[in-house]
Design goal:
By secondary structure, the chain is α/β, with parallel strands linked by helices. It has a single domain (about 15-255), classed as Vaccinia Virus protein VP39 (Rossmann fold, 3-Layer(aba) Sandwich). The chain has helices spanning about 15-20, 25-40, 75-85, 125-135, 150-155, 180-190, 210-215, 215-230; strands at about 45-50, 65-70, 90-95, 110-115, 135-145, 170-175, 175-180, 195-200, 240-245, 265-270, 270-275, 280-285, 290-295, 300. About 25% of the residues lie in helices and about 30% in strands. The strands form two sheets. Strands 1, 2, 3, 4, 5, 8, 9, 10, 11, 12, 13 and 14 form a twelve-stranded mixed sheet that branches. The chain starts with 15 loop residues before the first helix and ends with a strand. Bound molecules: S-adenosylmethionine. S-adenosylmethionine binds near residues 8, 9, 73, 99 and 119.
């Protein structure tokens, strides 16, 4: 049994946008992921939360939602997101952990989490939180990295890879970077009270040479045409899942709850959110709600 708090990967100050996405030869992956989200996510709703939204790469897909909450553990990435989306009143930026989300029960009509699961040491805790914050019968779109993909199977059978892609346990290839077996992940998703409604096997053409000779738009179109059928075998490196929440919980307040004591009486005091129940204070930094670590007036960070 785990007793310690899960470790969280540190993206603070990272150049994720410029060093991973922009002009880095990943246009195909970006297009394929967008196509998958469009197929799985309800077009409209009141509140959408993206968990681990980073710099807001995918936020243009949420045009049909009245309120869009971009949540991430990295304040600096959220500041980038805010520079990009901050002029749109629908957006709210929240620095917090997927393990202790500072939102009331049943707040969101839809939740999206893309390219984040592979960083989670304790997926079930985050899935439980997402189930709590999502309304009953509503949709959570999840992406996870698939360890049993074709490339990994090929490498394993030709002995260029020592670890088995067929083993159920997550494979941590670099600290806090995990690939998951689809059966293992399915069990966790169901265990958290979700029904798996639809799956897509995405980014099947993530092969250097192919990406160099075939335009990204074509590859993404092929990808989309096979992603539904491919889900039966799940041999692509990325799996997208539309999960339907089966929990029965009632909305427990307007927006925020205290991530420490779960108190629902948070109120704004100057540039902080204050919890009268446990006396925690949370900073608001340039318009971004920071629920990662409470601050105290006298001593600063605690
Ligand atoms: C690979 S990036 C993906 C960003 C975005 N979803 C995208 O696809 O462009 C992973 C993001 O997950 C965030 N993250 C990792 N662990 C987290 C946690 N426990 N709670 C909240 N965010 C987390 C990181 O800060 C980072 O921004």
């Amino acid at each position: 049994m785990h007793t310690t708090q899960p470790k969280i990967i540190d993206y603070e100050g990272s150049r994720y946008r410029t060093e991973f996405w922009e002009n880095q030869g990943r246009e195909y992956e970006d297009l394929a992921e967008r196509a998958a989200i469009r197929q799985l996510l309800p077009e409209k709703g009141a509140v959408l939360i993206e968990v681990g939204a980073g710099f807001g790469r995918l936020a243009d897909l949420y045009g049909g939602y009245d309120r869009v909450i971009l949540m991430d553990y990295s304040l600096s990435l959220l500041q980038e997101a805010q520079r990009r989306w901050g002029d749109d009143d629908r957006f709210l930026f929240v620095a917090a952990s997927a393990y202790t989300m500072p939102f009331v029960d049943a707040l969101a009509d839809s939740i999206v989490m893309i390219r984040v699961m592979h960083h989670l040491q304790r997926p079930s805790i985050a899935l439980g939180e997402i189930g709590r914050v999502l309304r009953d019968e509503n949709v959570f779109v999840l992406e996870y990295a698939n360890k049993r993909n074709l490339k990994s199977i090929g490498r394993y059978v030709t002995r260029r890879q020592s670890w088995s892609p067929f083993g159920l346990e997550p494979y941590e290839f670099v600290e806090l970077n995990y690939d998951f077996h689809p059966d293992w992940m399915t069990e966790r998703i169901r265990g958290a009270g979700f029904l798996i409604e639809k799956e897509l096997a995405v980014s099947a053409f993530r092969v250097g040479l192919l990406k160099q000779i075939v335009p990204a738009t074509w590859l993404a179109r092929f990808d989309k045409s096979i992603s539904g059928v491919g889900a039966a075998l799940k041999l692509a490196p990325s799996v997208f899942v539309r999960c339907r929440n089966t929990r029965q919980s009632a909305r427990s307040g307007d927006l925020f709850l205290c991530p420490v004591c779960k108190g629902r009486s948070l109120s704004r005091v100057d540039d902080t959110m204050f919890c009268p129940d446990c006396q925690s204070e949370w900073a608001i930094v340039g318009g971004i709600y920071d629920f990662r670590q409470s601050v105290s007036r006298e001593t600063g960070s605690v």
